[in-house]
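Attaching the record inline, Q. Sequence:
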Amino acid sequence: MKRIVVCNDGVDSANKGDQAILRSMLPVLAKRHPLSSIQVFSYSGTRSPMKVLRLVRALSRCDVFILGGGHPFQDLTSQAFLLFGLFLIGIAGCLGKKVFCLGVGAGPVVSFPGRILTGPMVNRADGIGVRDRASRDLLKKLGVREDKMRITADLAFTLPSAGRDRACEILKAEGIPPDGSPAVGISLRRWFHFRHRFFPRSPGRLSPKEEKRMGEADGVLVRFLDFLMRDTGARLVFVPMRKAGAAGDYGQDDDLYSGEIRERLENPDRAFVVRGDYPPGELKALLGTMDAVVAMRMHALILAASSGVPVLGISITPAKGEGLFEVLGLPWGFLPVERIDFAALRDRFSMLWRQRAEIGDLFRGCRETWEKRALSNFDILPPPLQGPPGPGWNHSGPACIRK
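Structure, as predicted:
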């Protein structure tokens, strides 16, 4: 292997999950293919005609194209999001390049173009590492050949932690005192505003139905978090995995949403929102100091579980609920966001809290297995080719980032 092009959102996304995936992927690629040149392009950020042309030009000159990890095969955020990934697979295949999808998730795919095109286009890939069984089953239903797919795990399971000392420094900097009480990490995001539009955009004015669903969900979360604090005596530490970068980031503004929920709590002085911008390895260290974590963000769950911390998920797609928690070995550890209510959250968290020592032991015992499954994504790649990259290939160290 001489020239590798990777398309992954961790290049320029504010989403710490995307960043965690890329920071887990690149060191392994560089180690396994030391003589290869690696160029990384943004997935969501490559939308202007010039950026698309730059990416296609790189594809024309590479030997291997890698899409992923992450969740490229879904049209909930927009149909264009899915179709762009299918377009890249098709272009690379037509150019005669080896194409691989590593650590990918799938679903939902409900649009007519998505359901018609996903199977034929994804079948053009030479190998697909699917991070959970629910995603594999959906891709199979959409027509992707089973022999093309291998069930692996999310690449972020291999992300190194910055360590407990760094986590303590962060807690001190954030003004979160070590008062001897338990701490529960919370990672929330807004929901119920995505509409399977063709192009992604801010939701603008919400429909009455959307406003009602969001208001009900907010009320359930506030009531549940009040119960959690009273029942366990714990402090809450809100850990935003995606901070707002602009006014149009509605739905991608975990920091603002966490602050809104905190202000509605009975005892907001016992709840803290992490304000600093920390890399994924430091967030993993921070989550690793918690006694439990409740999260809507999938990678907050992965970083906490791989640190041995019991987790309760509020899943936004089947792959991020059923799929992830099958990997974790805790099939009852999540609730779909569409079905959350106070009693269900209370009962599920109470069960988790009673069994937190056993669940922590389970997770620590599974860490090596999760890491091996994540690393098996790279086993579907061809062996390294000998020799340096060909003439005209722009190479700057092990990974040359292109936004």
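DSSP finds 13 helices and 13 strands in the chain. Confidence is low (pLDDT under 50) at residues 389-399.

More tomorrow.
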